[in-house]
């Protein structure tokens, strides 16, 4: 039996990186996966590959920063699968701009996707989980949301947005525990994904840039390293775990 047999799991940012890895792994563990992303072409290709493997998955276009977009995704999800058991708020963007060189538009965009998007996801799905009798929510923050001053973690808005995800997660865990809705955050370190590729960084360069920070060999992580953490938090194996933060960073911030 799969670890998510029969569960309906909605994942944001599922066209690339750790969201895509989660969609693949959750589907292989028996979940019905609602894979969502703004990048619909890449998402359709990813979901076609998952269903070609005999798994159950649905691709839906979603801009996490838009309440209207969330409303149509919720409607289409309920029409197809009837409920949502697991929500993974994974979509995120990065802009390497500091306090002095960022403009208001840079700041607002990062906050809109990374923080407001997580709030809107919970606002849209928690009422379904309340009716459902419970659920599990996994919010993707970053080690930058814990240690805001990491030089390699990029921008000021990024650190602030991920700090907001961390505290919003704990708020939600307190508020909705009575409904048996668990809410936890994941804090990746340096994971080699589309974000790094888009920034023109090779795997070797990524490894080199954290060589002095990360004790484990290999230095950078893979999308599946995060997706397996998401799987644990999504499944009932973590039924007594809520309001916590799972750091997956090769040991970077452990010192
Ligand atoms: P990625 O770029 O490979 O994937 C992110 C996905 O989110 C993309 O498919 C993109 O199209 C989608 N997306 C962007 N804006 C969106 C929006 N408004 N609505 C819906 N989808 C949107 O990135 P990744 O590295 O897999 O990152 C996933 C999450 O992990 C992000 O929240 C990121 O901040 C976080 N994170 C990444 C790292 C890392 O080292 N890669 C480290 C810490 C945290």
Helices and strands in order:
Elements: E1 8-11, H1 17-28, E2 32-37, H2 40-52, E3 57-61, H3 67-81, E4 86-89, H4 104-132, E5 135-140, H5 156-176, E6 181-188, H6 194-198, H7 203-209, H8 223-234, E7 245-248
Parallel strand pairs: 1-2, 1-4, 2-3, 4-5, 5-6, 6-7
Supply Rg.
17 Å
Kindly report the spatial arrangement of strands forming the biggest sheet: 3-2-1-4-5-6-7
**Separate helix tally:** 8
**CATH superfamily membership:** NAD(P)-binding Rossmann-like Domain
Q: Report the bound ligands by name, code or SMILES.
A: nicotinamide-adenine-dinucleotide
Shape: globular
Q: Give the C-level CATH assignment.
A: Alpha Beta
Kindly name the structural category: alpha/beta
Which percent range fits the helix content? 40-55%
Please tally the β strands and state the result.
7
Uncertain regions spanning at least 5 consecutive residues: none
Kindly state the mean pLDDT as a whole number?
A: 96
User: How many domain units?
Assistant: 1
**What series of H and E elements makes up the topology?**
EHEHEHEHEHEHHHE
Organism: Frondihabitans cladoniiphilus
Protein name: Glucose 1-dehydrogenase
Keywords: Oxidoreductase
Pfam family, one: adh_short_C2
Short account of what is shown:
This protein is of the alpha/beta class and 255 residues long. Helix content is 45%, strand content 15%. It has one domain: Rossmann fold (3-Layer(aba) Sandwich), CATH 3.40.50.
Task: Characterise the protein shown here.
Keywords: Oxidoreductase. It comes from Frondihabitans cladoniiphilus. Belongs to the short-chain dehydrogenases/reductases (SDR) family. This protein is of the alpha/beta class. It has one domain (8-248): NAD(P)-binding Rossmann-like Domain (Rossmann fold, 3-Layer(aba) Sandwich). It has eight helices and seven strands; from the N terminus they run E-H-E-H-E-H-E-H-E-H-E-H-H-H-E. It has helices at 17-28, 40-52, 67-81, 104-132, 156-176, 194-198, 203-209, 223-234, and strands spanning 8-11, 32-37, 57-61, 86-89, 135-140, 181-188, 245-248. It has a seven-stranded parallel sheet, with helices on both faces. Helix 2 links the parallel strand 2 and strand 3. Helix 3 packs parallel to helix 4 and helix 4 packs parallel to helix 5. Nicotinamide-adenine-dinucleotide (NAD) binds at residues 12-13, 15-19, 37-39, 62-65, 90-94, 113, 140, 142, 188, 190-191, 193-195.
């Amino acid at each position: 039996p799969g670890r998510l047999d029969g569960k309906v799991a909605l994942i944001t940012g599922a066209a690339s990186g750790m969201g895509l890895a989660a969609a693949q792994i959750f589907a292989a563990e028996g979940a019905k996966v609602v894979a969502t992303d703004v990048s619909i072409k890449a998402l359709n290709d990813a979901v076609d590959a998952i269903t070609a493997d005999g798994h159950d998955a649905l691709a839906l276009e979603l801009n996490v920063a838009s309440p209207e977009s969330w409303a149509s995704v919720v409607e289409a999800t309920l029409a197809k699968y009837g409920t949502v058991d697991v929500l993974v708020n994974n979509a995120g963007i990065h802009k390497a701009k500091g306090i002095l060189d960022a403009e208001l538009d840079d700041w607002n965009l990062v906050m809109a996707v990374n923080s407001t998007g997580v709030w809107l996801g919970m606002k849209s799905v928690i009422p379904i989980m309340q009716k459902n009798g419970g659920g599990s929510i996994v919010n993707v923050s970053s080690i930058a949301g814990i240690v805001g001053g990491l030089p390699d973690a990029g921008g000021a808005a990024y650190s602030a947005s991920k700090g907001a995800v961390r505290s919003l997660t704990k708020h939600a865990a307190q508020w909705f525990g009575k409904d048996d809705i668990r809410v936890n955050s994941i804090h990746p370190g340096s994971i080699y994904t589309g974000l790094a590729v888009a920034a023109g960084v090779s795997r070797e360069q990524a490894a080199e840039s954290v060589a002095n920070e990360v004790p484990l060999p290999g230095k950078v992580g893979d999308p599946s390293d995060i997706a397996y953490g998401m799987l644990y938090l999504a499944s009932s194996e973590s039924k007594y775990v809520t309001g916590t933060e799972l750091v997956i960073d090769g040991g970077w911030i452990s010192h």
